[in-house]
Each structure stands twice: as C-alpha cells, then as structure tokens.
Amino acid sequence: MVLLHATWLHRFDDGPYWDKFTVYERQSCRKNMWTNLLLINNYVGGDMKCMIHTWYLATDFQLGIIGTALLLMCMKYPKKRNFILFGSIIVSFIIAVIHFYVHQLEPILMLPPENLRNQLMGNPEYDRYFYDFHAPTHLNTGNYLIGLVIGYFYYQYKQSNGRTDNRSAFLNVLWHCSYLLTFILCFIGFYFYEYDIKLGIWSALLGALLKHIYGPIIGILFVGIFNRYGWLIPKMFNYGMYRILARLSFSVYMVHLTMGCLIIMKNKFPIESNNSMLLSSTVIVYTLSHIAALFLVVCLELPAHAIFKTIVNEILDKPRGAEKPPTPNIINFKIDYTSTKL
Which of 209, 238, 267 is the C-terminal boundary of a domain? Predict the structure, then answer.
C-alpha cells in the first residue's frame, strides 16, 4: 500500500481535490516511507506523514514490545508483579498529564469538518496536532497496560478456579453500568465542542483520565461476556461470521483510506456535506474496503501465512544436530617383508 501511494495512486483519477491529496501523499510516501517500514512513523517523519492512518501499526508494535517486557519482568520477579504492573500504569498516567500540559491540548481530540479536510489535503499544522494528541505510544500505553492487567489476572483466575461462570453480583452491576458509561463518553465531546475551556493543569488531568478510562471499561465488558452476563450479547460475540470479518479486519484497515479517497476525492465539483451524503459514502467505502480486503487476504495474506507456517514448521521439526555417520572399521595391514605373511 505504501508503494501504491508513492507511485500509481495519483494516476487513477484527476481533479482539484484528487491532485491536492495525491500529490501531497506521493511526496510524503517517497520521502518518509522508511518510517512506515520501520514502524516508527508515529514519532518520526516530521510534517509529511505517509498513510496517516498507519500510525496505529507503529503504536501497536511498540506497545507489544513494552507489554512483552513487562510480562517477562513479572515472570522473573513474581513477588513484585503488582508493583510492576500498577506502577507502570501510574507512570503512564503521569506522562500523559505532562504531555497534555506541555502541548496545551484539549482533553478530547477535536475533529471539526475543516480539520478533517485539512488532514486529507495535507495541512502540516493539523498533522502535528493529530500526532501530538493521538499517535504517540506514551499516550496509549495506559489503556494497553490496563487491558494487559485485566487479561493477566483473568487468566490467573481462570487457571486457579478452573471455571469462568462466577456470577458476582458486584461485577454484574459494574458490567451493566459500563454500557451506560460507554454511551456517556461517546457524547461527552458535545460539551467541548460547544464551550471553550481554559487549558491548564485541570484540563491536562481530564485529558489523561479520558485517555485511561476506555481500557477498564472495555476490560469489564469482556470479562462480563466471558462470564456470560446477559443473554443476547454473548451470543452476538460468538457469532461465526465474526471469524471471517476478523480475518479481513487488518486488510480493511489498510485499504479503507484509499477507498475513501477514491470515492470522495474524485469529485470535480464542490462537495456538500450532509447526513445522507455521509451515510451513503460510509456504506460505499465500507463495502469496497471489504471487497478489496478479501482480494488481499486471498491473494497475499493467506499464501504468505501458509509459506511462513511451512518454513517455521520445517525449522522446528528439523533435528538439532545431525547424527554422525558410523566410524568405518579400519583394517591395519602390517607387511612383513621377510616372509610371505600378511
């Protein structure tokens, strides 16, 4: 996808919107595609980011390294497990507060229409704002570690009890309240869009809190689903169709920006933004992204996975040391020149 954006994408169409987006994207990818390949594009790359949505891949990769290191420390020092895990979350929260305060960021990511337009049209000022607020690994570490802690202790609980159907009344109430809190958080942005708030230490604390609150909510939701709270939601999450969608999800994420640009940026007249236009564009982009993702999975991801799996299995099945061939019996001949005996 990076090579496509750096070479042929701008040749697929033309027009004022298309040229403005694809020229900037081509220049960014040709200059900074190496940051995408090294998975450091959430920090490195300056104002010209190639495929802006791939910040998540770099952040997730870096969080995986951090999480693995913490789990290894917990295995090496089991008595200090709680100190390591919860101490890391506290440090992450403090770092987030400092980041919000130093960069003078709003508690939530502000996405008015002009900012979204500037993001696609290559506005360096908005790129800096987005990468200061959303992309840094140190701002996403808290939620990741909270999810890691919940998963770790749930695994320990499952191993020790051998069952996952412990229907605690407190957890049941907390699970249902988490749904209400999820909807509240979805609409909390209305206040910040409507009123201007003074940026300072209190807004930094609120921003750090909002950055860390989604992890425990989602963790509680999943623990409740594992314990089969509710009658419909566990069935929905166990629906077999989700396995196919999960297989396509990574490829959908990789191509959805390209599909969106093909649908929206090809227009050669002013774009009128309204609810029907947004809904129809969303449905079209969603459908085309899954079609393209299916092609990528069948033609690229599955064959590459099969080849990689075959190579790994051959390496694992190969004996560690080749057996030495048996030493041949050597017959020493001694010649007695004074007689005819051999």
Answer: 238
First-to-final CA distance of the chain = 79
**Joined tokens for residue 52:** 């802006």
- Residue 341 forms part of a structural domain: no
Whole-number Å distance between alpha carbons of 210 and 228: 28
Structural contact between residues 50 and 35, judged by C-beta atoms closer than 8 angstroms: yes
Question: Are 142 and 163 in the same domain?
Answer: yes
Q: Name the H helices within the chain.
A: 2-6, 16-37, 55-76, 81-103, 113-121, 124-133, 137-161, 169-187, 189-194, 201-226, 233-237, 241-264, 275-296, 302-317
Tokens at 318, concatenated = 């190969």
| Torsional sign, CA 200, 201, 202, 203 | positive
Which residue carries 């089969």 as its tokens? 228
Choose among 115, 111, 5: nearest CA to 50.
Answer: 5
Which residues constitute the domain of residue 155? 2-238
**Percent share of the chain, pLDDT over 70:** 84
- Residue 103: how many other CB atoms lie within 10 Å: 15
The whole-angstrom separation of Cα 108 and Cα 188 is: 9
Number of structural domains (the chain) is 2
pLDDT in tens, 67-116: 999 989 988 888 888 899 899 999 999 999 999 998 888 888 777 666 66
CA 160 – CA 155 distance, rounded (Å): 9
> Same structural domain for residues 26 and 164?
yes
Helix or strand or coil: residue 50? coil
Count of alpha carbons within 13 angstroms of residue 217, beta-carbon side: 17
Claim: this prediction has a pTM higher than 0.85? no
- Number of Cβ within a 10 Å radius of residue 93: 18
Q: Position 234: which residue type?
A: P
Q: Report CA torsion sign: 108, 114, 118, 121.
A: positive
Q: How far apart are CA 85 and CA 95, in angstroms?
A: 16
